[in-house]
Write a sequence for this structure.
């Protein structure tokens, strides 16, 4: 290689050095700078889209809260999830697989009083949390008695709409 380089004229060496420098800069641009610039542009576009989505969601959330408040005001005895308290309890208990442990359901005011016998405490608490979080109901009274079997309880619950 040294022999070949020594055989070149000084003008050819300068042209070759300049050509290699231009080729190196071009390779650096295509392999490093261009992907970074493209990624930055894509990220900016994504941030703009997410910002627009966030703004829309905030505006829509205000409207949803307003309508939910109107629905609750217009329909006493109806939970925020869109059904009567008794219906919501029955459907939710059936879905959670605890309907068999429910001894009795009695309407009380705008809500319902429930009696459970021999139900797993963890299952009951999870179900009550789901009623509060997803169905818009609130547990206003809860009485729990431990049974002889570990983890099993009897309970009396008063559930009302928010």
């Amino acid at each position: 290689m040294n022999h070949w380089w020594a055989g070149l004229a000084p003008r050819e060496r300068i042209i070759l050095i300049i050509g290699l420098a231009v080729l190196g800069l071009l390779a650096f641009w295509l392999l490093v700078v261009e992907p970074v610039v493209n990624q930055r542009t894509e990220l900016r576009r994504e941030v703009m889209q997410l910002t627009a989505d966030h703004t829309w969601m905030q505006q829509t959330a205000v409207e949803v809260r307003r309508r939910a408040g109107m629905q609750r005001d217009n329909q006493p005895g109806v939970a925020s999830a869109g059904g009567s308290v008794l219906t919501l309890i029955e459907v939710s208990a059936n879905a959670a697989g605890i309907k068999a442990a429910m001894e009795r359901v009695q309407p009380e005011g705008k809500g319902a009083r429930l009696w459970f016998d021999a139900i797993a405490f963890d299952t009951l608490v999870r179900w009550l949390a789901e009623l509060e979080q997803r169905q818009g109901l609130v547990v206003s009274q809860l009485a729990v008695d431990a049974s002889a079997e570990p983890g099993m309880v009897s309970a009396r619950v008063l559930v009302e709409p928010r």
